[in-house]
């Protein structure tokens, strides 16, 4: 498209020292132009147009779908930023026959599996009610910290009941070296013992300290009738975990600190840890 000025163009000798230079950049949807006209002789010295390039569309997932909720995806122009469309992504079908979309732990299991923290006990089972043992818990924590990096399981030097070349050896050694776990005695870790809720809280508390995250939060636990049963070493960690919503009561008046932590419960604790500690710390 050529733009023609709405005045008569005349000839004659002119040095074109007095001009009007008009330039409008093209947008995604409208052509641009550049016109230079001599104000003295009215000659059009330059008349160029630039075609509108159209939108350059990119699609971005804003919210990933889970076993429970739909996701959200938007399309927008990377040139002008215009929002083009929003559509929704169907909820992911759980691969586990024992994890249904209506289960209280479904979101937590999706988080744990999707982030490589947990795996199913088989292709079709997660066993949410199975108790976690101490070795499993520390292995999950190692995955949270190291991502896809595998632990070195060839060296054992801290606990006599954590021999070399076990699937959990490197994770336990890493956690012990960094003050994240303590043994059940000076020389034992009891890796295959079921882990309790207060032990999970204590390990997550020490991990937060190791990472430099906030460990000052606390809350009064006296409203729980069994708060006196919390082991002395775990009082501060449980208060901290409860303040951050990582560990809540099993009822409004019962905390169950000495109760065994199931795979579903631990998945939920790690999900809350990520939402309320990691995300908060990263945002600051």
Describe the overall structure.
The protein folds into three domains: 1-53, no CATH class; 57-89, no CATH class; 106-283, no CATH class. α4 packs across α5 (235-243). It has helices at 106-114, 134-146, 169-177, 197-211, 235-243, 263-283, and strands at residues 19-24, 32-38, 44-50, 57-63, 71-77, 83-89. It contains six helices and six strands. The strands form two sheets. The protein has a three-stranded antiparallel beta sheet with strand order 1-2-3, with no helix packed on it. A three-stranded antiparallel beta sheet has the order 4-5-6, with no helix packed on it.
Name its key features.
three-stranded antiparallel beta sheet, about 15% strand, alpha+beta
Reconstruct the topology from this structure.
Elements: E1 19-24, E2 32-38, E3 44-50, E4 57-63, E5 71-77, E6 83-89, H1 106-114, H2 134-146, H3 169-177, H4 197-211, H5 235-243, H6 263-283
Antiparallel strand pairs: 1-2, 2-3, 4-5, 5-6
Helix pairs in contact: 1-6, 2-3, 4-5
Strand order of the largest sheet: 1-2-3
Low-confidence stretches: none
Mean pLDDT: 93
| Structural class by sheet pairing and helices | alpha+beta
Topology pattern, helix = H, strand = E: EEEEEEHHHHHH
How much of the sequence lies in strands comes to 5-15%
Helix content: 25-40%
Tell the overall outline: elongated
In total, how many beta strands? 6
Specify Rg, calculated over alpha carbons: 32 Å
Distance between the termini: 52 Å
Number of helices: 6
Quaternary organisation: single chain
Q: What kind of sheet is the major sheet?
A: 3 strands, antiparallel
Number of domains: 3
């Amino acid at each position: 498209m050529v733009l023609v000025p709405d005045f008569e163009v005349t000839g004659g000798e002119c040095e074109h020292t007095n001009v009007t230079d008009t330039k409008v950049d093209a947008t995604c949807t409208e052509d641009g132009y550049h016109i230079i006209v001599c104000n003295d002789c009215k000659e059009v010295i330059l008349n160029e147009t630039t075609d509108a390039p159209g939108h350059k569309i990119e699609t971005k997932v804003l919210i990933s779908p889970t076993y429970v909720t739909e996701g959200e995806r938007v399309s927008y122009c990377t040139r002008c930023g215009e929002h083009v469309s929003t559509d929704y992504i169907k909820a992911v079908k759980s691969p586990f026959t024992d994890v249904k979309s209506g289960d209280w732990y479904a979101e937590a299991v999706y988080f744990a599996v999707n982030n490589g923290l947990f795996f199913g006990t088989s292709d079709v089972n997660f066993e949410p009610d199975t108790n976690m043992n101490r070795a499993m818990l520390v292995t999950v924590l190692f995955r949270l910290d190291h991502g896809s990096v595998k632990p070195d399981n060839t060296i054992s030097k801290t606990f006599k009941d954590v021999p070399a070349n076990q699937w959990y050896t490197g994770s336990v050694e890493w956690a012990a070296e960094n003050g994240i776990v303590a043994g059940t005695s000076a020389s034992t870790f009891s890796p295959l013992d079921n882990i309790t809720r207060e032990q999970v809280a204590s390990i997550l508390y020490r991990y937060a300290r190791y990472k430099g995250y906030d460990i000052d939060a606390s809350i009064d636990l006296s409203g729980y009738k069994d708060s006196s049963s919390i082991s002395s070493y775990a009082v501060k960690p449980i208060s901290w975990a409860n303040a951050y919503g990582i560990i809540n009561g099993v009822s409004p008046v019962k905390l169950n600190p000495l109760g065994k932590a199931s795979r579903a419960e631990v998945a939920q604790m790690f999900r809350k840890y990520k939402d309320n500690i990691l995300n908060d710390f990263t945002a600051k």
